[in-house]
Amino acid sequence: MPAENSTETPSAANGADTQVTRLSVNINAETAAKLRWYKENKGISITETIRRAVALLDLVERESASGNEVLLKSRDGKSVRQLWLV
Fold it and tell me: Which PROSITE patterns has this protein been placed in (predicted)?
């Protein structure tokens, strides 16, 4: 189970006050490698990588909860697959 440090500090990002929460999680080597690959491929921080992953998860969960299907379509349009989260 991930440990959460409840350290929240005000931060002035883009002139807006935001709360920052530091989290400590345990992940396997495969997941860590995927995060590092995405970080390096996109030229972003690990923090931004995690933000994007959580935003995508949130989008899929909200759409599914609303009764919508999340579909992946091949570039040529010949193949469509439905994305399911378990």
Answer: RICIN_B_LECTIN
Classify strands 70-73 and 80-83 as parallel, antiparallel or unpaired: antiparallel
Torsion of CA 63, 55, 22, 29, to 10 degrees: 100
Select from 43, 53, 3, 47 the least CA-distant residue to 24. 3
CA 19/CA 31 separation, integer angstroms: 27
pTM of structure: 0.71
The 10s digit of each residue's pLDDT in 14-40 is: 555 678 899 999 999 999 999 999 999
- What is the amino acid identity at position 2? P
Give yes or no for a contact between 8 and 21, defined as CB atoms under 8 angstroms apart: yes
